[in-house]
From TrEMBL:
Protein name: Alcohol dehydrogenase zinc-binding domain protein
Regions crossing the membrane: none
Source organism, top-level taxon: Bacteria
Lineage summary: Bacteria, Pseudomonadati, Spirochaetota, Spirochaetia, Leptospirales
SUPFAM superfamilies noted in UniProt: GroES-like (SSF50129), NAD(P)-binding Rossmann-fold domains (SSF51735)
Source organism (scientific name): Leptonema illini DSM 21528
InterPro entries, per the entry: ADH-like_N (IPR013154), ER (IPR020843), GroES-like_sf (IPR011032), NAD(P)-bd_dom_sf (IPR036291), YIM1/Zinc_Alcohol_DH_Fams (IPR050700)
Entry's Gene Ontology molecular function annotations: oxidoreductase activity
Length: 333
């Protein structure tokens, strides 16, 4: 099969198109012929080597965390899927590889894709959908009547999170450039702040939840918009000790994470709020629930551009430009 690999980490490294053997299929795996794969900033960060500490991959590595395609073979113990099923998935860490013609996925990490979406639209959903779900529902416990501030509402995670928060009955504030105001308002944002002209920390107060996806300075400013008892959930770091426990990290790595998050945890405690880090995980059962929301029209995909498989480097450069509205997707031949 054809696949894109990285042979070594580095910002200047390009993905190489090579021929690889078909993936090995375990008893609980499904073999999926890839129709579409979405790109994420996470792909760039792994390529650059930013996550070597958290995700020590063996190189060469096939990147790609979002996939939609057709099941062409199943393992002997698979019971959820049949050959011919149209599925989508965010494969588990250490089993990624959507930038290829075929991928083997554990059946628990996949779901039947929404019937009202194209393959390209379906591929845009898993990583951002699961991130928003795990941040707002699992970590924050967001409920009807609460107020949530979701940064970068026109981005991949932001566009999904705004819709999910609105479905949950929350009042939603977000940041965006003026050109994207109409877009984020159409997704359900009640308050939109122009990040180029206004300081969100001066406009917002007494919020229950903040979903942070930006830099350390923005993370610290986010504390000021929360009321006592509020929750700050960050998907951009720093990682904390709870995350270290979740991934079964060594005592040394746990100590590193404690030090990295010490400053923000202390500041959060002084304000009477909580801080937690989220690195989303694969979860097919949650994708099933997301499918229901999409099929009922509560949430819709936001796809910026679709690139052919042969233009992966150009697609990744576009993601790295920071100008993406929603998601960027690859389409196989």
């Amino acid at each position: 099969m054809k696949a894109y690999i990285i042979k070594k980490y580095g910002k200047k490294e390009h993905l190489q198109l090579v021929e690889l053997p078909e993936p090995l299929l375990s008893d609980n795996d499904i073999l999926v012929r890839v129709h579409s794969a979405a790109l994420n900033p996470l792909d760039s960060k792994i390529k650059n080597g930013d996550f070597k500490l958290i995700l020590p991959y063996k190189l060469p590595l096939v990147l790609g965390h979002d996939v939609a395609g057709e099941v062409i073979r199943i393992g002997s113990r698979v019971h959820k899927f049949q050959v011919g099923d149209r599925v989508y998935s965010r494969p588990a860490d250490h089993r990624i590889g959507a930038f290829a013609e075929l991928i083997a996925i554990h059946e628990d990490d996949a779901a039947i894709m929404p019937k009202n979406l194209t393959m390209e639209e379906a591929a845009s959903i898993p990583l951002v959908g699961l991130t928003a779900w795990q941040a707002l529902i699992e970590k924050a416990g967001l409920t009807e009547g609460q107020k949530v501030f979701i940064q970068a509402g026109s981005g991949g995670v932001g566009a999904f999170a705004v819709q999910l928060a609105k479905y949950l009955g929350a009042t939603v504030a977000t940041t965006a450039g003026a050109a994207n105001f109409e877009m984020v308002q159409s997704l359900g944002a009640d308050i939109v702040i122009d990040y180029r002209q206004e300081d969100f920390e001066e406009k917002l107060k007494d919020f229950d939840v903040v979903l942070n996806s930006q830099d350390a300075a923005t993370l610290e400013k986010s504390l000021s918009v929360l009321k006592r008892g509020g929750k700050l959930v960050s998907i951009s770091g720093p990682p904390d000790a709870d995350f270290a426990n979740e991934i079964g990290a060594s005592w040394l790595l746990k100590s590193v994470f404690k030090v990295l998050s010490l400053g923000i945890r202390r500041k959060a405690k002084r304000r009477g709020v909580s801080y937690s880090f989220l690195f989303m995980r694969a979860q097919g059962a949650q994708l099933d629930r997301i499918t229901s929301l999409i099929e009922s029209g509560k949430i819709r995909p936001v796809v910026d551009k679709v690139f052919p498989f042969e233009m992966l480097d150009e697609a990744l450069a576009y993601v790295e430009s920071g100008r993406v509205k929603g998601k960027v997707v690859l389409k196989m031949r």
